[in-house]
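User: I'm putting together a teaching handout on how sequence relates to shape, and I'd like one worked example. Could you take CDP-alcohol phosphatidyltransferase family protein from Flavobacterium chungbukense, show the sequence you're using, and then write out its predicted structure as tokens right after it?

Assistant: Happy to. First the sequence, then the structure tokens directly below it.
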Amino acid sequence: MNIKKHIPNLITLINLFCGCVAIVYVSQNNYLMAFYMVCLGIFFDFFDGFFARLFKVSSPLGLQLDSLADMVTSGVTPGYVMYSMFNNSAHELGTHPAIPFLGFIITLGSCYRLANFNIDTRQTDSFIGLPTPANALFILSLPLVISFSDSLMILEILTNQWVLLIITLCSAYILNAEIPLFSLKIKKFSFKENALQIVFLIVSILMVVFLHYIAIPLIIVFYVLLSIINNLSLKK
């Protein structure tokens, strides 16, 4: 039996396991551990493809497993987090019990993106629309910003149901928007060819050092805006 061909799929299943554990932590309102488990899942999500290419064992099964695992870790988990944030927020939209379920619009948007990604041949070296792992990090960082920020303004903003609804709808949209986003992969050791990626990484590191958890959603927004600016410059 060729053990090598099973290693990438095993790593993918570990990603799925991390997503399942993250969901349990969200149910316990332990958003910090949920965030760490999603980060761990995303880590394994990167390396399943890496080892598949390294061992030259890429397969249709691996592609499907990867999307199914991402659906849990980067699809169901952020939707559940937003559901929980709606539950814990002030009731600007009313007290109807169905309101918090609007958070799962993120899960629906993630599902559509993952299915579309599997058949979209344009997304080999870059992305069109925000990848689900990046979106998951954005959503899971929001309750951490609330917990670790001393700003009353931030607290009021992120506990307002109208704001949460806007974030939810924007999240589902940006996942599937026809917006090319640059890849973070550095293929050649040349500053000129990788200037965009290097600038993004440097700014991101500085933001994390100085802003801590609040840097995470800002980094995702910065990534999208930098991609849009880059797209506009290429059209000139």
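A couple of points you could highlight for students: The two ends are 54 Å apart (CA to CA). The first strand starts at residue 127 and ends at 128.
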